[in-house]
Amino acid sequence: MEACLQRKEQKNRKAKKFDGAAEARLTAVACSDPPEGRECWTLKLLADEMVALEIVDSVCRETVRKTLKKTS
């Protein structure tokens, strides 16, 4: 019975790419003017910009999408 009341430890869970500060920077970049020659930011451009700003080592477009969807 005791085992039913306690959660199991999740061993396969990956660490998050974005913490609170990185999420705030992503939102700020997404709300800023897009790069020259572009009308709006794309997910790939945002992911590349986050790497260029050295906020994260690498990030995929899907992570950027989920983060922006969560903060909207």
How is this structure best described in words?
The chain is mainly alpha-helical and 72 residues long. It has a domain at 41-72. The chain is 51% helix and 0% strand. The protein contains four helices and no strands. Helix 3 (43-52) crosses helix 4 (61-71). The chain is elongated. It starts with a helix and ends with a helix. The mean pLDDT is 89.
Short description:
Helices cover 51% and strands 0% of the residues. The protein has 72 residues and is mostly helical.
Task: Break the fold down into its secondary structure elements and pairings.
Blueprint lengths: L1 H4 L14 H12 L11 H10 L8 H11 L1
What keywords describe this structure?
4 helices; mainly alpha; 72 residues; elongated
Distance between the termini: 42 Å
Helix content: 40-55%
Order of helices and strands: HHHH
The structure class reads mainly alpha
- What portion of residues belong to β-strands? under 5%
Oligomerization category of the chains in this entry: single chain
Ranges where pLDDT stays below 50 over 5 or more residues in a row are none
Largest sheet: none
